[in-house]
Design brief:
By secondary structure, this protein is of the alpha/beta class. It contains eleven helices and twelve strands. It has three domains: 67 residues; 145 residues, Heat Shock Protein 90 (2-Layer Sandwich); 125 residues, Response regulator (Rossmann fold, 3-Layer(aba) Sandwich). Helix content is 42%, strand content 18%. It is elongated and about 75 Å long.
Length: 368
């Protein structure tokens, strides 16, 4: 049957659906930024042992799961295929354990080194790695026994090491080296692709994965990710925020809700901020501040402004005004070339949407 001009092919329908998903993800990212920002700000001001803090923590965790759903949409829309971003691996581990603990026969024990470095990964893919290893450990432990999740930084090697250890039946030595081979499985209902995909994802991130097992005692999977591949640096006491306690910032974003919560979070961190909603005004405001002898310490620029100039269009003009300008690019599309290689385009760092108080503080700390 020949299609008419009024009919859409399957490929065209998929293209339209992908565009709609990308547009939805963009709008939802803005809503999530407002939600996560307000929640993290409220949590920072409440006593950790209060009932309200516990209630809001549950909501915040739900918003983080919603963030992961948006990333899945971006993957489908081909906006985030292999993109990587500054990610709290300890947070991903806690989220996965909390989600899987409900239906697991085994208790999970977490042994995470404090202040683990954040690394550049694709969060959706890395969540897949963690979930596959946790599910595999649970299935390998029919008699129960704790599943131990460990994470630590190997400083001389510049690696983040993560272990998932079960106390189950163990793996026969002759099968051990085949566990990562596609379609090899020791399970009657398995397809042999879970661990193969885990290995592929880890190695695609520049990491390594290994397995050790003793029959009747259990199995330990260990994977390492290179810290040197970090997109940004974590917040530490050695990383001064913009090299001064109170910075003067310029924020460009066309969404009033994001302007409001970003301003509140920045003020909570001790900074002052001037808000603008278009690139032309941002350039004018930045120049006026320089001429008046009160320059901005840094700028946060939304990458794209519908119907106007965003960070993409004005960064070169900003650098002409001030070759030493410190600029963060803010976007929900981590696959964009500017986001992936921000320094090549004149930016000093990236602030991915949606973001909360901790992510905002971390991004600012890295451009000091």
């Amino acid at each position: 049957m020949i299609s008419t001009s009024n009919e859409l092919s399957d490929a065209q329908r998929v293209d339209q659906l992908q565009l709609k998903c990308a547009a939805f993800a963009h709008d939802f990212n803005n809503l999530l930024t407002a939600m996560m920002g307000n929640l993290s700000l409220a949590l920072a001001q409440l006593p950790a042992d209060s009932k309200l803090h516990s209630m809001l923590e549950v909501v915040h965790k739900a918003s983080v799961r919603a963030q992961a759903m948006v990333k899945h949409l971006l993957l489908f829309a081909k906006q985030d295929s292999v993109a990587r971003e500054f990610t709290d691996m300890a947070g991903l581990l806690r989220e996965s354990v909390a989600l899987l603990q409900r239906g697991a026969r085994c208790p999970f024990v977490m042994e995470l080194e404090p202040d683990l470095p954040w690394v550049a990964v694709n969060p959706v893919q890395m969540t897949q790695v963690i979930n596959n290893l946790l599910i595999n450990a649970n299935q390998a432990s029919p008699q129960g026994g704790p599943i131990v999740v460990r994470a630590k930084a190997l400083k001389p090697e510049a690696l983040l090491q993560i272990e998932v250890q079960d106390h189950g039946t163990g793996v026969d030595p002759e099968h051990l080296q085949k566990l990562f081979v596609p379609y090899f499985t020791t399970k009657s209902s398995g397809n042999g692709l879970g661990l193969a995909s885990v290995k592929a994802i880890v190695e695609d991130h520049g990491g390594t994965i290994s397995v050790a097992s003793t029959l009747g005692q259990g199995t330990t999977f260990t994977f390492c990710l290179p810290i040197k591949e970090m997109a940004l640096c974590p917040v530490t006491s050695e990383a001064p925020l913009l090299k001064k306690a109170a910075a003067r910032l310029l924020l460009l974003d066309d969404e009033p809700t994001i302007q409001q919560i970003a301003a509140e979070m920045l003020q909570h961190l001790g900074h002052s901020v001037v808000l603008v909603k278009d690139g032309a005004t941002a350039l004018q405001t930045y120049k006026q501040a320089m001429d008046a002898g009160h320059p901005f310490d840094a700028v946060i620029l939304d990458l794209a402004i519908p119907g106007g100039k965003g960070g993409r269009e004005i960064i070169e003009d900003l650098r002409l005004l001030d070759p030493k300008v410190l600029a963060l690019v803010s976007s929900g599309y981590s696959e964009d070339p500017i986001v992936k290689n921000c320094q090549q385009y004149g930016f000093s760092g990236v602030l991915m949407k949606p973001y909360n108080l901790k992510a905002l503080e971390a991004a600012l700390a890295c451009i000091g």
